[in-house]
Amino acid sequence: MLDSKIRNQLEEIVGQERLLEKPEELICYSYDAYLEESMPDLVLLPVTCEEVSKIMKICSSYKIPVTARGAGTSVCGASIPIKHGIVLCFSQMNKIMEINTKDRYIIVQPGVVNIDIQKALEPFKFFYPPDPGSMNVATIGGNVAQNAGGPRCLKYGVTADYILGMEVVLASGKTVRFGSRNVKDVTGYRLSGLFCGSEGTLGIVTEIILRVVPLPETIKTILVTFDDLDDTARSVSDIIGAGILPVAMELLDKLTINAIEDSANLGFPREAQGSLLIEIDGVKEACEKEMQKVIEKVKANNATSIKEAKSDKERDELWEARRSAFGVFAKLAPDIFSEDVTVPASKIPSMIRKTVAIAQKYGLKVGILAHAGDGNMHPMIPADKSNKEEWERVEKAFDEIVEAAVSLNGTLSGEHGIGLAKTRFLPLVMNEDSIEFMSVIKKAVDPDGILNPGKFV
Ligand SMILES: Cc1cc2nc3c(=O)[nH]c(=O)nc-3n(C[C@H](O)[C@H](O)[C@H](O)COP(=O)(O)OP(=O)(O)OC[C@H]3O[C@@H](n4cnc5c(N)ncnc54)[C@H](O)[C@@H]3O)c2cc1C
Prior knowledge:
- There is one protein chain.
- The strands form 4 sheets. This protein has a 7-stranded antiparallel beta sheet, sandwiched between helices. It has a 5-stranded antiparallel beta sheet with strand order 5-6-10-8-9. A 4-stranded mixed beta sheet has the order 1-2-4-3.
- It folds into 3 domains: 4-89, Uridine Diphospho-n-acetylenolpyruvylglucosamine Reductase, domain 2 (2-Layer Sandwich); 96-214, Uridine Diphospho-n-acetylenolpyruvylglucosamine Reductase, domain 3; 218-407, Vanillyl-alcohol Oxidase, Chain A, domain 3 (3-Layer(aba) Sandwich).
- It has helices at 4-14, 23-26, 49-62, 114-121, 140-146, 153-156, 192-195, 229-241, 254-264, 284-300, 312-323, 325-329, 348-361, 388-407, 426-429, 432-445; strands at 19-20, 42-44, 66-69, 86-89, 96-100, 105-108, 126-127, 163-169, 175-179, 204-211, 213-214, 218-226, 248-253, 274-282, 303-308, 335-338, 367-371, 376-383.
- Helices cover 35% and strands 20% of the residues.
- The radius of gyration is 22 Å and the shape is globular.
- Bound molecules: flavin-adenine dinucleotide (FAD).
């Protein structure tokens, strides 16, 4: 519970309407898309950097925990206020400040939803490539704090590759700005790389300058199916190994395809053991040539069907179906354990075999969904957390999947982050000195540890 004197000081900054304190209001901010919950004492909805700065000055003087929040779609528990305190929710700080396609940038406030950036750029024939599956709801502030990825990141790179500049309020309430509107800028430390992916533990992002790119002339999308999951996975590493770089190469296994079909009925072949959704873009001739090479590779790996999207509508339907995979999977059981390990692309076939074997060992179902081209796998285990015995098996399987990825030169997370879910695994991929180095940085910018406490450092 917050002292009423502090509560009143905070109310003076945002006003009564943007301060939430009733339990029925607070509960929505106590969880995200992960499996834990913790109630905040207060939720504030700032709309300007000045408000954020004033709030942070108060929180810093009273050492109150502050957890920033966008749409709360984190799947690693990054936005759960595990030490209570204040949630700063950015849903109302959602203005697009400037679009400048001649100089290839857009300036946005943190609460702008990813899809609204895409919609705003479309009339200019530009786009912002990072496209997390949650893009219809997730905010750009959350994307930046998690260094979000998505299907298109295979060719275009992740959020960090698009940040030109940022405005950040530190724990002390001081406001720092770095980067600029310039695509090339080597002025001082590249601090966007420090704050991007820091999960709100180092500062509160209040404005972002993003690089944008022109829409391609042509896009070609195919759905390929296989009778064997190994053939599906091998196609991925063969395509990448041949020097072909599709925009996206998404792998779905039988369980996932059937979960999608049960919900969307799009004609995905239910009997296929694996399928690949592959997209190529560029100038028309190059696109056709590349697609031909892709088709050769999948045929060499015994593809059973290849269906090309014939219109934008068909293409959109395929992508909507892919994006729905996480949601429709959730219908299979009360809880879903969703993984995010990444391995080098050549190790995808081994990683899939290991994952299936681990699930079998613990008597669990597993659905395989992967941004396969960049080795980023999302095995999903449907289960019931209230069934203690089953959940213990899920947790053991989860540990072994992480260890398997690390043993294949992989890593803990490709895009979902560390949050509450994976802090304990950090020593698997970082030595003691490296973890200590992160703590040194944290202490330097947030000496009292008030920013998103309880998360990875
Ligand atoms: C169905 C589904 C599909 C998904 N698909 C993908 C995917 O393809 N790729 C991917 O990368 N992720 C994916 N995610 C995970 C999630 O959507 C992303 O991590 C997203 O970037 C979170 O955005 P958000 O607005 O919901 O942030 P939140 O969940 O609210 O917050 C996430 C983190 O960002 C911090 N934060 C938020 N705003 C700020 C700010 N202004 N300043 C500082 N820190 C801030 C929070 O403190 C927290 O640590 C998916 C999630 C779901 C539920």
